């Protein structure tokens, strides 16, 4: 079934019986409840740790920032405008039958009417969402103008447990390989069983790499983060000065910035109750990451949009499943350097990535045929530098997709 929006007609081979248009529209009482809770919630009083001199955030989120963000959320921020923006793109939900159970997977998309259009799936991470890729979709609409000229089918899912996609089954653990299998099923349901390209950052990069190993239809993988859990095996001698500086920043992050990951990996149930209980808790937990992991601080409204989505969709407890499989002792998934990706692989390195693996290291994890190193941008590449990431994805696809 097609939507009435431009770029909204499903590919002719799609299973239209299980893919339905979706509109974002929360009941007014849910939005009001979020704002009422904000107004009733107190901010911790000033102490040394939350009130360091200048703009120092080395001990965590600053109180002055949180007070101002809370004020804007309560009095100026309009979630309905965010809904209007989301709904300006074609959105859908697809029913996916998997060995672990049934999933309702939300996705935004731009579909081409060209016979030779190349399918691309863009995969977000934590604490991100499909919202990260909306600027990139806007660029594509502006650049190509119509479905007849768009050379790609671009699919942007909410990963299971995130946003408008359903939770993982209660009876089963859920890991990157499971997520990759569900996303592959989505792509095949859309008619792309003959092949597609997967792109991702953060959790999305891990899922894309899993798909590159395990899913036949995934013909190529592009990532803008390449987690390496045993970099001691890597050669340090040939690194550039900027790469060495990135490794030092990576080491510092592991020493001072990984506490959240260990908590999410080892005690996700307890943390989930805390984060779900109150929108200000959600904002503090993810807002810190948007501020610390970007090249330049995002605007407060941009972070509030992300926090609102997390809180309104009640996904703050269900979207941290991947950490248990990457940050606990003995885990060894497809983001381990000993696991080689045989499909053509591309890599974009943004300088303020929190785990900036040098290109020479990434070559040891897969069949790296394309790479690019940028001089600006951070962990949320699609959100921070959509033009640069889009250019990289298009260049990589042109390199590897040979008809």
TrEMBL record:
Cited Pfam families: EHN
Example GO biological process: epoxide metabolic process
InterPro entries in the record: AB_hydrolase_fold (IPR029058), Epox_hydrolase-like (IPR000639), Epoxide_hydro_N (IPR010497), Epoxide_hydrolase (IPR016292)
Domain Epoxide hydrolase N-terminal residues, every copy: 19-133
Keyword Hydrolase in annotation: yes
Keywords linked to the UniProt accession: Hydrolase
Top-level taxon of origin: Eukaryota
Keyword Hydrolase: yes
GO MF, one example: epoxide hydrolase activity
Signal peptide start and end residues: none
Active site (UniProt): 202, 323, 379
Matching Gene3D superfamilies: alpha/beta hydrolase (3.40.50.1820)
Family: Belongs to the peptidase S33 family.
Protein name: Putative epoxide hydrolase
């Amino acid at each position: 079934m097609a939507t009435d929006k431009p770029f909204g007609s499903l590919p002719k081979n799609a299973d239209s019986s299980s893919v339905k248009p979706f509109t974002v529209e929360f009941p007014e009482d849910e939005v009001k409840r979020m704002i009422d809770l904000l107004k009733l919630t107190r901010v911790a009083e000033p102490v040394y740790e939350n009130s360091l001199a200048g703009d120092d955030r080395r001990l965590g989120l600053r109180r002055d920032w949180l007070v101002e963000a809370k004020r804007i959320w309560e009095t100026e921020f309009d979630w309905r405008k965010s809904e209007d923006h989301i709904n300006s793109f074609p959105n859908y939900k697809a029913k996916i039958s998997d060995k672990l159970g049934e999933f309702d997977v939300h996705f935004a998309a731009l579909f081409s009417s060209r016979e030779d259009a190349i399918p691309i799936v863009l995969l977000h991470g934590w604490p991100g969402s499909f919202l990260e890729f909306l600027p990139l979709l806007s660029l594509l609409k502006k650049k190509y103008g119509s479905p007849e000229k768009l050379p790609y089918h671009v699919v942007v899912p909410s990963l299971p447990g995130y946003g408008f996609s359903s939770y993982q089954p209660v009876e089963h653990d859920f890991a990157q390989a499971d997520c990759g299998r569900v996303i592959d099923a989505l792509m095949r349901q859309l008619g792309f069983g003959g092949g597609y390209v997967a792109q991702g950052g953060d959790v999305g990069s891990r899922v894309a790499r899993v798909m590159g190993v395990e899913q036949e239809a995934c013909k190529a993988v592009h990532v803008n983060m390449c987690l390496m859990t045993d970099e001691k095996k890597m050669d340090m001698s040939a690194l550039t000065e900027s790469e060495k500086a990135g490794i030092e920043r990576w080491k510092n992050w592991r020493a001072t910035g990984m506490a959240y990951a260990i908590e999410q990996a080892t005690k996700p149930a307890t943390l989930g109750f805390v984060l779900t209980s109150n929108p200000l808790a959600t904002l503090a937990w993810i807002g810190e990451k948007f501020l610390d992991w970007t090249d330049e601080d995002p605007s407060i409204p941009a972070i509030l949009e992300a926090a609102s989505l997390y809180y309104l969709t009640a996904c703050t407890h269900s979207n941290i499943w991947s950490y248990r499989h990457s940050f606990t002792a003995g885990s060894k998934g497809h983001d381990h350097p000993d696991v080689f990706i045989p499909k053509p692989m591309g890599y974009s390195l943004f300088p303020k990535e929190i785990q900036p693996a040098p290109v020479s290291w990434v070559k040891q994890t897969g069949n790296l045929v394309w790479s690019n190193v940028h001089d600006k941008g951070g962990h949320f590449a699609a959100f921070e530098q959509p033009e640069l990431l889009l250019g990289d994805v298009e260049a990589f696809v042109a390199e590897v997709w040979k008809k």
